[in-house]
Write a structure and sequence with these properties.
Structural class of chain A: alpha/beta
Strand order of the largest sheet of chain A: 4-10-9-8-7-5-6
Number of strands of chain A: 15
Shape of chain A: globular
Oligomer: homodimer
Largest sheet of chain A: 7 strands, mixed
Helix content of chain A: 25-40%
Chain lengths: 411, 411
C-alpha cells in the first residue's frame, strides 16, 4: 500500500465527485465531521436567500410563501429514507436532548399502566442522553429511575420486568461501537420494554432501518454526518403505529391540531406534528436542506461501503506505520459493530491531538485519553487517510507534542 | 394634522436615522414587527460570515474561536439592560415555549413544600403559554391544575392560597393590553405566589424593569421587536436570588457544571447556564446580535416615547378618518396599559387585512375579527402611519375587500 494506491482509489471512487459539493479549507484534512459536518457549498446561497429575500423582502409572508411553517415536516420527509422511516414519521425540530425527552416521556407514558419504572441505558452513553433521562425520571413522581449498565453484555439482563424503556445510542460517540439495533429491539420487545434510539452518530453515517429493526422511537442530530450546519435542529422519529398514543409534556402551539385557532386548551394534532413544540429557528433549519440534498445523489449503501474502506485503511495504516507507539484501538474491528469514526487511546492523547490540529489534521479528543477520527465518505478520500497517518507518525516519531498542553473548558 | 405634519415629525425624529439600519422593501408599510421584526442590514453580512467563514473555513474550532459556545450567555448579557436584568441573569436559547416550561417547572418546584398546586393565567394569554402550563401540570402527579381567568379584574382574587404561580404575558398579543407588572408581582408575592412573565410583546417594545417590578422569572422572544430573525432563539431570565434553586427537568449537557467531563450524572452549573439544555442553532442565534446592536444606539425611553406617539396617531387617524365604518378599538387608550401594537375589530377583519396587505400595508389578523397593527419605532415613521390609514380608509370607503376570503391554515 502506497500513497499512489490511495490516490488511485480516490480516482475511481464513485463518491469522489460529491466532495465538490462541499466547501473545505485548503491544507486541512477534516476528520471531525462526526462532530460538525463540513459546509455544503449550497448553504451559503441558501443562507443569503433566507436572510435577504425571505426574511428581508418577504417578511412575515414567508411563513406561508417560503414554506417556513412546513419546514420541520418537509425536512423530516427528506431525512426519513436515510433511517428507514416512512414519510410523515419524522420532523426536524428543537435539539436532540429535547427530542429525546419527548420520546422518553411518551414511552414512559405508554408503559404507565404496568409496574415498569426503570429506564435502562449505558453509562458510556453520550451524557446529555443520560441527563435528560435523569431529568425526566426525577420529575415523575412514581419512583422512576435510570439504570446504567457498564458493558454491552449486561444490556440484555438489565432489560428485565422493571424496565420500561431501553434507551441506547446506536453508535457510541467515543468508541464508535455500533449496537445491533434489530437484536436489542427484539429483545426489549420480548421483555415488554420499549426502545428509544439515538442516531446522532448513525444518521448519514451507517445504514439504519428503523422499521426493519423494530425500533419504537428514535432521535438524532443533523449537524454531524448530515452536514446541516452548527447546532442545526435535530430530528425525532415516531412510527405511525405509535403516533396516536404519542403524548409528552412539551405541548407547545406548533403541536396543536389548529394552532391559529388560538384555543385555550391543548389538543395535539394527528400525526408526527405532535412532536413539535415552539417556533423553530428558520435560518438554521433552512441549512439542513442543503445537507440532505447531497444524500439524494448517492445511497447509504455506497456511503457505508466507502466508510468501511476508509476506517479499515486508517486502522491498518496506524497500526502498521505507528507501530511501537502506545496507541490502542478502542473501535471494533468487526464491521457490523463499527460506526464511521475510529478512536485510539494514547497516554498523551490530548497533546497529540492538539499537535495534529496544528498540522491541519482535525480530529478531536474525548476523555479519557481518546483521539477520535471521523470518516465522512462524502468528502473524505483515501489519500486524506494516508496523509493523516503520515502526519500522526511524524508527530509521534518526533515526539512533536507538548505534554503540558491542558484541555480547555470547551472542545 | 396633515401628511406634511407627519413628514415634519419624521424629519425631527431622533430615531429616524435608525431606520437606515434596516432593510425594508420598497412600497411596503410594515406594521407586523410585533410578529416578525424587520431585517437589520447587518444580518446579511453576519449570516455570510457565520456560514462561509466560521462554519465553512474554521469548522469545529469555531465553538471556541468564534465564541459559539458562549453565545447564549453573551447575547443574554446584551439583552439584559432592555428588561431591567443584570449581567449573568439571561440566556438566549431554545424557544419561548420551552423556556416557559423551565421557568414554570422551577417555580412549581420552589412551591412544592406548600399545598399550592394551581398555575393562574388568563384565558386570553397566548395559547402556547397555556398549553405548556397544561403540559407541565398534567405530568406532575400531585394534582396540579391551570386556572384560567376571564378578565384582568379577576386576577387578584384568583391568586389565592392555592396559587403556586401567576403566569402572565406582560403585553397581550391580541389587544395590546399591558399589565401592571409591579402591582401584580407585589400582589402575588404578598399572597405567597411566584410570578412568571412572558415578555414576547414587551422586550424591545416597552420599558421593562424586572428587578424593580419584583418579578420572579421571565421569558421572551427575540424575533419580534428585537429583530433577531425568523424563529430566532428565545430568552429566559432567572434573577440571581433564584439561581441556586433553579431546577427543571430539561437537564441537558449545556446546563451541566462540566459538560466536557462527560460524567454520567447531571450536576447543574452555577448561574444562569443551568437554564441551558442542548446544542443551540448557531446560525439563527448569531443573527440575534445584529438586532441587539441597534438597541445599543438608543434607549427604551426614546423608543417608548415614539411608540406612544405612533400608536396615539394611528388611533386618532383611524377614528377620525374612518369614522362611520364598524371599527372598534380593543387596545387601551391609557398609555400605561398599552403595548406597542394597536388592534381594531371589524366584522370582516380578515378580508380587510388581506386587502391592506395587497396594497402594501402589512399587519396581521387574529381571531376573532381582530386586525393587528404593530408600531416599531426603530423603523416605522409618522408618515407611514398616515399612509397606512389613508389606504385603510380607501379600502373601507370603497368596500375594496372580498368578504369571501377565507383564512388559511397558517397566518
Amino acid at each position: 500500500m502506497t500513497r499512489e494506491d490511495c490516490v488511485a482509489r480516490d480516482e475511481r471512487d464513485p463518491l469522489g465527485l460529491l466532495r465538490n459539493a462541499f466547501d473545505l479549507p485548503e491544507g486541512v484534512i477534516y476528520l471531525d465531521g462526526n462532530s460538525l459536518g463540513a459546509r455544503p457549498k449550497a448553504a451559503l446561497a441558501r443562507a443569503t436567500d433566507v436572510v435577504a429575500q425571505e426574511w428581508g423582502r418577504d417578511l412575515i409572508k414567508s411563513w406561508n410563501t417560503a414554506g417556513w411553517f412546513d419546514m420541520p415536516r418537509r425536512l423530516g420527509d427528506m431525512l426519513a429514507p436515510l433511517i428507514g422511516a416512512a414519510a410523515g414519521e419524522v420532523v426536524v425540530t428543537d435539539t436532540t436532548s429535547l427530542n429525546l425527552f419527548k420520546a422518553l416521556a411518551a414511552a414512559v407514558k405508554l408503559q404507565a399502566s404496568s409496574a415498569r419504572r426503570v429506564i435502562v441505558t449505558e453509562r458510556s452513553n453520550f451524557p446529555t442522553d443520560i441527563y435528560m433521562a435523569q431529568g425526566l425520571a426525577s420529575w415523575l413522581e412514581r419512583g422512576y429511575t435510570v439504570r446504567l449498565v457498564d458493558s454491552v453484555d449486561e444490556i440484555p439482563a438489565a432489560v428485565d420486568q422493571d424496565c420500561a424503556v431501553l434507551m441506547l445510542t446506536h453508535v457510541n460517540y467515543r468508541t464508535g461501537y455500533q449496537h445491533d439495533m434489530a437484536a436489542l429491539s427484539a429483545h426489549a420487545r420480548a421483555q415488554g420494554a420499549l426502545t428509544v434510539w439515538d442516531l446522532a452518530h448513525s444518521a448519514g453515517a451507517v445504514p439504519v432501518d428503523l422499521h426493519a429493526a423494530g425500533a419504537d422511537f428514535a432521535v438524532g442530530c443533523t449537524y454531524k454526518y448530515l452536514n446541516g450546519g452548527p447546532g442545526a435542529p435535530a430530528f425525532i422519529w415516531v412510527p405511525q403505529r405509535h403516533q396516536a398514543a404519542f403524548v409528552h409534556p412539551l405541548s407547545g402551539w406548533w403541536g396543536h391540531a389548529a394552532p391559529f385557532d388560538m384555543a385555550p386548551d391543548f389538543a395535539p394534532c394527528s400525526g408526527i406534528g405532535r412532536a413539535l413544540c415552539g417556533t423553530q429557528p428558520v435560518v438554521s433549519l433552512a441549512m439542513v436542506e442543503c445537507g440532505l440534498d447531497i444524500f439524494a445523489r448517492t445511497s447509504m449503501q455506497d456511503i457505508r461501503a466507502k466508510s468501511l474502506e476508509l476506517t479499515d485503511l486508517f486502522i491498518e495504516l496506524v497500526e502498521s506505520r505507528c507501530d511501537g507507539h502506545p496507541l490502542e484501538l478502542v473501535t471494533p474491528r468487526e464491521h457490523a459493530r463499527r460506526g464511521s469514526h475510529v478512536s485510539f487511546t494514547h497516554p498523551h492523547g490530548y497533546a497529540v491531538m492538539q499537535a495534529l490540529i496544528e498540522r491541519g489534521v482535525i480530529g478531536d479528543y474525548r476523555e479519557p485519553a481518546i483521539m477520535r477520527f471521523g470518516f465522512t465518505p462524502l468528502y473524505t478520500g483515501y489519500a486524506d487517510v494516508w496523509d493523516a497517518v503520515a502526519i500522526l507518525k511524524d508527530i509521534l516519531d518526533g515526539q512533536a507534542y507538548d505534554i503540558n498542553t491542558r484541555r480547555g473548558a470547551v472542545t
